[in-house]
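User: Here's a chain of 107 residues. Predict its fold as tokens.
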Amino acid sequence: MKNLLFFFVIVTLSVSNINAQYEDIVFSDFIYVSNIKSVTFYPSGLPLEPPIVSLAGGRKLLLSFDDLDNEQRDYSYQIIHCNKDWTPSDLEVLEYIDGFSNEEIRS
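Assistant: Prediction complete.
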């Protein structure tokens, strides 16, 4: 019984940590900076499709945007795996990304 309670506490803390990790992120079509326009994120070669790919497939996602500011800036991105209702899933990064979870955007 003691082990079951310990497991429940660990699972509860893990779920709370996942939700707290993403509390400042809007999981919908949203741009955080006013000078960024024309953001598109889609499977390579299919610009009208939503940014959904099979984990077993070889298709890549393409991210593009326009920066209307007149200064050179460094940008980075992070991919977050979501469930079908656009809530963060409990998958580990290594389960859905082959490479790094955060990358700099090079122009």
